[in-house]
Write a structure and sequence with these properties.
Largest sheet: 11 strands, antiparallel
Strand order of the largest sheet: 11-10-9-8-7-6-16-15-14-13-12
Radius of gyration: 28 Å
Number of domains: 3
Number of strands: 16
Structural class: alpha+beta
Shape: globular
Distance between the termini: 85 Å
Number of helices: 20
């Protein structure tokens, strides 16, 4: 191996290697660094090694998937943007929620994971966030919050503080999105918000006589999260706000719930405002590290990297006043004829890509994904589901659900049950009897049914993508024996779970409209470890009537 000459400029140039990788986008690079890299064989060789690291990271993906998971690659690139740079707790904070997103996997040491390995406080923060069990959207918003810095905005404190009472009462109403954002990032307004909620808690602690219809102690942190951290919430675009009114009308006056909200407030903002530890890490490429053989206690053994751990007060020597130029503005930059790749240098810029990555699931062109099905179901207003037992022509049950009318009509045989949440009543019409039995709904009953209306209607195998177990397989089914129309595509999700001492294998098959991503039929299969083949357990067909058709159906049922 040729031993290239190393000098002090090589160390300065290391943090800009990322800009010289093939790709799209770029950042400004000092002119003397460009000139050095053009002439330095050592640095050019290091850039090739770095490119190899990213290539190895891509190879870690399951080859059986036959397509690159672009979300994981983008996630890795965000990490490697900090090569050669000082990584502190503030750098790492916006990345912490992403480590809890099942779609994002890190299998190689990166500048961010290296800091986590060496910083106990950041690991504690990660474990604290993990215990909150937040969903993907909440994790994304938390990343954005951690990267946000208080700044002079169009919204001032006096304007934002007028909304504090509404936020404490969990009724955002017409509150502006920017107002909610300000309340989450302004230290003074945050303090005032906490104080107002504490006053409400103390008030209801001594005066509340409301019966405990909710199991307050079982409500999770994720249920309160949007009201404690309304960062990124847009009240004007929240089509499901009315379904949560049954929950918020209780929690806003319940001292137990308000106490849990205060605890969540402290947990989140203690992490956001935590002072940096003394641990600062710098991740270097070092091919010689990979040459080491034999057993080693070094957790990074075998990787071509070298880790430098410094104190927070130790400064890396750089030429602060050196003018920078845009790489794209130079016509003759490098004999290597390479194209610069975008670089994320600060957490505030990185979080834009983090937000994208957390929801990114790019499949082969035209394919239907689980995420696209979940999102399509979120947007529908009315649905008609007919449930069948295999080999039976008549449905075992039918239900019509309307999110706009706030109703759920269930038909079993010739009997009907109408859940009218807007009217606060449950109406039952028995077979062969024209009389209607009416029951007033309790808050608990309304809240339970509202939750069913606002979720996926029982069509999806899991409440959210984040709940899908590891090892589950999603694939398209191209079987000529399955007869479908041209616009319908068939997919399956397979997974297994432990039931007592047995392993149960489950399969959920969906016939999805390729244009709308909406399910037209779903089938549920089950197989125990003693079965040779999957057994079809139930079938549901799905239609999407408009509001006029829904009203007509209710009328025909004589309600």
């Amino acid at each position: 191996m040729i031993a290239y000459k190393f000098n002090s400029l090589c160390q300065q140039a290391e943090q800009y290697y990322y800009d010289f990788l093939p790709g799209e986008g770029h950042g400004p690079v000092p002119e003397h660094i460009i000139n050095h890299i053009n002439q330095c064989q050592y640095c050019r060789e290091k850039i090739k090694q770095y490119e190899g690291i990213l290539s190895q990271a891509e190879d870690y993906h399951d080859l059986e998937q036959k397509q690159i998971n672009l979300a994981e690659i983008a996630w890795l690139k965000l990490h490697f943007a900090y090569i050669g740079k000082r990584v502190t707790c503030e750098t790492v904070k916006p990345f912490l929620p992403g480590f809890l997103e099942p779609a994002l996997k890190i299998k190689v040491p990166t500048p961010i994971t290296v800091h986590l390995d060496n910083c106990q406080q950041c690991r504690q923060d990660l474990n604290t966030i993990r215990e909150l069990n937040l969903n993907s959207k909440q994790l994304c918003r938390l990343s954005q919050l951690f990267a946000e810095k208080a700044a002079k905005e169009a919204i001032n404190c006096s304007q934002a503080q007028t909304a504090i009472t509404a936020v404490v009462s969990m009724n955002f109403g017409d509150a502006d999105k920017e107002v909610l954002k300000h309340l989450c990032v302004c230290p003074d307004c945050l303090k005032m918000l906490y104080q107002h909620r504490e006053m409400a808690r103390n008030k209801y602690l001594h005066t509340s006589k409301e019966p405990k219809m909710f199991l307050c102690r079982e409500i999770s942190a994720s249920d309160y999260f949007d009201y404690v951290v309304p960062y990124g919430i847009d009240p004007a675009g929240d089509q499901y706000a009315k379904f949560r009114s049954f929950f918020t009308s209780h929690s806003s006056v319940c001292p137990i719930c308000l106490t849990k909200m205060q605890q969540l407030h402290s947990t989140i903002y203690n992490i956001a405002e935590r002072a940096e530890s003394e641990v600062v890490t710098i991740y270097h490429i070092d091919e010689s590290a990979k040459i080491e053989t034999g057993e080693s206690d070094d957790i990074y053994a075998g990787f071509p990297i070298r880790i430098e751990i410094t104190g927070r007060q130790e400064e890396v020597k750089t030429e602060q006043l050196t003018p920078t130029i845009d790489i794209a503005s130079k016509r003759k930059i490098s004999a290597m004829n390479i194209k610069p790749l975008f670089k994320v240098g600060v957490a505030a810029a990185a979080v834009i890509l983090i937000a994208t990555v957390l929801f990114l699931n790019i499949p082969a062109a035209g394919a239907v994904t689980l995420e696209s099905i979940y999102k399509a179901i979120e947007k529908i207003k009315n649905v008609h589901i007919s449930s069948f037992i295999p080999d039976k022509k008549e449905p075992l049950q039918e239900q019509w659900v309307s999110r706009t009318l706030n109703i759920n009509l269930i038909k079993t045989g010739n009997g009907f049950v109408l859940w009218d949440l807007a009217g606060g009543a449950k109406k039952v019409k028995h077979p062969g009897d024209n009389s209607i039995e009416t029951t007033k709904l309790t808050s608990e009953m309304i809240n339970e049914m509202a939750g069913k209306i606002s979720n996926s209607f029982g069509l999806m195998p899991f409440y959210a993508i984040s709940e899908i177990p590891k090892g589950a397989e999603w694939k398209r089914i191209d079987d000529k024996n399955i007869k479908t129309s041209d616009e319908i595509e068939v997919y399956e999700l397979q997974w297994s779970e432990k039931v007592n001492d047995d392993t149960v294998f489950r399969k959920w098959r969906v016939f999805a409209d390729a244009k709308t991503n909406l399910p037209r039929k779903v089938e549920w299969y089950r197989k125990s470890s003693f079965d040779d083949e999957y057994i079809l357990k139930s079938i549901s067909t799905v239609e999407y009537p408009d509001e006029g058709e829904m009203q007509k159906i209710i009328k025909n049922a004589s309600f």
